[in-house]
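We were asked to recover a plausible sequence for a given structure. The inputs and outputs are reproduced exactly as logged, with field labels preserved.

PROBLEM: sequence recovery
POSITIONS: 615
GIVEN STRUCTURE:
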């Protein structure tokens, strides 16, 4: 089994603590449990032979046309099989865990039904624990269910009639036929830690079809109710709603920490080495999401992340020795040791496969600005202790801002004086001054203002290229960098400042290819890694927002509509777009969906303003 579906040929389901990817043919090829960053039980996306999978699909060979969609405004995924003999569906969902406490038990429900004619179905369940490194035992229980026992994790497979589970070594298979109006389901329940359930598995009694249908209704109702909190009434309702649901799916409910993506190891170039683990919380990504969440009406999610962020500021204890590090585990653990899983061949032989992320030790000074940017959106700034922790960090930054660092893109080619890093230290001091003034809190305002102004002068003197008529990536280059598209958003310059408009023009000429935006040119600014990468979806949507705020509405709307054509069949984006329009990198990527929301909000705002102008 050495075949891999395109990265884009997937939907995602989740329960707010973990998530699974389901390929368009009905195969679960990625699921880590009990948390997003736990070892996998299904990972055939990274090794089709060793990784493990759970396949449930119509057994009609090439005769079926297959389509995948979401139940509108929910995270319930439907895979449809349309064959000459009948039309059937596999419905996938995970019951949301709304307790907001870490759970060791998680359930993936896969329900099959036939709506016309009759169809044979095929089930194959072959888990591979601990990224395929650990063996497991199989035990058939008295009720006909099967218990897969791995190290520290059990996986309980249950089925409703007429499905009969047939063990085959340490795997399970089944074939069954459904006729119009008939339903059947399997339920996969993972249990991590603790003793096994006496006399059975963690899934409890064998579920009935009626019980599965009730869970389906409850799951659908949860998502419909959640989305009703959205205030978005703009032109791109379906895409914005799908992006909001995706951000929610990628947020660990017990702490409010969003992860960057559901996967690890998916390549930025097929066959290349740019394959990272994104199942962690980046301070940058999450902080920049706060404004969008508030604008959409999801204030509870914004508040939950800010609480998590204030806890990190107060906790210290980073692996880098700085007051804050660039990423953490969802529970706030700063230890993200990176290891190479050399037993996995990687997606389409794109190795190495890495678990953990060594970039956590990097110095990236921009995170202090993004943290302040997030905290500045709140009415509640965290009480006396929270304010003291924040001002301690700002005071520390007054002595440590003027240093080379690795920069926003986590390059492994050495430290530089990156302009974006300086920009965000300016934001840190600017927002600290604003917060202290607005909330009448104590702080060394004269010092903060002085350093803020010194940073501003340095950026405009050294981060500006008179030759390029543009702000550049770092102080010793004339290379452009798309991260600086955030300059007007954070208030460093206005969106129509002449120096910004010439920077925008320069980016358009050098970094933009048919509305798609590259982060930078690795050939002109080596980043210490072999190979190339695609255009960066985050940057493409930031470019749309910058165009809209600059008043270039026709260009912005056209670029936005073209970007939406790169979404997959259910409205999801990976990190990058390749040269043939293929999705590359980890999937789905939260930062991309955040930037999509921001671009849509900006476009709606500017288009509405233009329509109100007298003709």
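RECOVERED SEQUENCE:
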């Amino acid at each position: 089994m050495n075949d891999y579906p395109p990265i884009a040929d997937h939907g995602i389901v989740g329960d707010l603590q973990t998530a699974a990817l389901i390929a368009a043919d009905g195969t679960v090829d990625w699921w880590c449990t009990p948390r997003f960053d736990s070892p996998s039980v299904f990972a055939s996306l990274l090794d089709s032979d060793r990784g493990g999978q759970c396949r449930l699909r119509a057994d009609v060979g090439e005769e079926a046309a297959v389509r995948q969609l979401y139940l509108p405004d929910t995270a319930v995924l439907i895979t449809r099989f349309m064959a000459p003999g009948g039309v059937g569906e596999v419905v996938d969902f995970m019951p949301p865990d709304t307790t907001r406490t870490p759970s060791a038990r998680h359930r993936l429900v896969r329900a099959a039904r036939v709506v016309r004619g009759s169809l044979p179905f095929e089930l194959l369940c072959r888990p591979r624990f601990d990224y395929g490194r650990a063996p497991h035992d199989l035990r058939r229980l008295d009720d006909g269910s099967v218990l897969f026992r791995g190290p520290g994790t059990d996986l309980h497979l249950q089925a409703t009639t007429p499905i009969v589970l047939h063990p085959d070594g340490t795997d399970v298979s089944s074939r069954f036929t459904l006729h119009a109006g008939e339903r059947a389901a399997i339920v996969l329940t993972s249990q991590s830690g603790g003793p096994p359930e006496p006399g059975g598995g963690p899934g409890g009694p064998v579920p009935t079809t009626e019980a599965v249908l009730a869970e389906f209704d409850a799951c659908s109702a949860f998502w419909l109710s959640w989305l009703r909190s959205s205030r978005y009434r703009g032109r791109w309702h379906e895409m914005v709603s799908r992006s909001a649901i995706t951000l929610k799916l990628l947020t660990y409910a017990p702490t409010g920490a969003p992860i960057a993506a559901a996967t690890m190891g998916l390549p930025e170039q097929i066959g290349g080495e740019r394959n990272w683990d994104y199942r962690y919380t980046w301070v940058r990504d999450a902080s920049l999401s706060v404004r969008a969440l508030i604008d959409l009406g999801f204030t509870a999610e914004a508040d939950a992340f800010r609480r998590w962020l204030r806890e990190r500021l107060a906790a210290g204890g980073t692996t880098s020795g700085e007051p804050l590090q660039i990423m953490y585990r969802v529970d706030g653990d700063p230890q993200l040791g990176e290891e190479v899983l050399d037993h996995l061949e990687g997606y389409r032989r794109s190795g190495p496969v890495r678990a953990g992320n060594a970039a956590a030790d990097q110095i990236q000074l921009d995170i202090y600005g993004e943290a302040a940017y997030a905290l500045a959106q709140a009415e509640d700034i965290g009480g006396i202790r929270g304010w003291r922790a924040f001002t301690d960090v700002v005071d520390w930054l007054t002595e440590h801002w003027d240093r080379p660092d690795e920069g926003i893109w986590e390059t492994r080619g050495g430290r530089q004086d990156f302009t974006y890093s300086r920009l965000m230290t300016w934001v840190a001091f600017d927002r600290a001054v604003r917060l202290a003034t607005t909330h009448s809190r104590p702080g060394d305002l004269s010092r903060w203002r002085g350093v803020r102004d010194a940073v501003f002068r340095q950026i405009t003197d050294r981060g500006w290229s008179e030759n390029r008529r543009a702000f550049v990536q770092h102080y010793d280059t004339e290379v452009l960098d798309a991260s600086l598209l955030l300059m007007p958003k954070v208030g460093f310059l206005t969106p129509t400042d002449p120096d910004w408009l010439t920077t925008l023009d320069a980016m358009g000429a050098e970094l933009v290819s048919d509305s798609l935006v590259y982060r930078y040119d690795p050939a002109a600014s080596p980043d210490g890694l072999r190979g190339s990468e695609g255009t960066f979806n985050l940057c493409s949507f930031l470019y749309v927002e910058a165009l809209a705020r600059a008043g270039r509405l026709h260009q912005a709307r056209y670029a936005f509509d073209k970007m939406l054509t790169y979404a997959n069949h259910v409205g999801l984006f990976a990190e990058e777009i390749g040269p043939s329009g293929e999705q590359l990198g980890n999937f789905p990527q939260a930062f991309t969906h955040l930037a999509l929301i921001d671009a849509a909000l900006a476009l709606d705002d500017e288009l509405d303003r233009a329509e109100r102008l007298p003709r």
